[in-house]
Amino acid sequence: MTFPYKEITPHIRRPVIPIIIKSYTYFVLYHGLIDSGADHCIFSLEIAKELGLKFSNKNKTTFIGAGDDEIEGFWGEIDIKIDKITYSTRVIFAKISDFGHGILGQLGFFDHFDVQLSYQKQVIEIESVKLQN
pLDDT tens digits, residue range 59-108? Predict the structure, then answer.
């Protein structure tokens, strides 16, 4: 699969791709920033509400973002669809800045795909990998 870099603002382009996030009953068209520095996939709590997901304290987690502050979030099990590939994964829903996109990290994205980013060509190449246990 090949995707172009997305222009966020004039002169700023990032590796953001279209995705579909699905719960048992709803789905959301969304975008994900490919972030090799992120340990997990992280999506906005607003997306969780749109998906009809409910959380309890047993789902609660904390993590460190780009700064030193701890961010509180909740684990959720969802399906992610990228192009024609759909898979189930565990992600974090948290109150994150409204970039208009989530974060596709190591667990939940990179463990499913080989990814090649070319800033010079402004393209993202993604190839599905077969998961081994």
Answer: 898 887 767 788 889 999 999 999 999 999 999 999 887 678 999 999 99
Q: Provide the CB-side half-sphere exposure for 113 (13 A, CA).
A: 25
Burial class (CB in 10 A: 0-12, 13-18, 19+), 56: exposed
CA dist., res. 90 & res. 20, Å (int):
15
Helix (H, G, I), strand (E, B) or coil at 88: strand
Rounded to whole angstroms, the Cα distance separating 52 from 27 reads 9
Other C-beta atoms lying within 10 Å of the C-beta of residue 101? 20
Strands 12-14, 42-44: pairing kind: unpaired
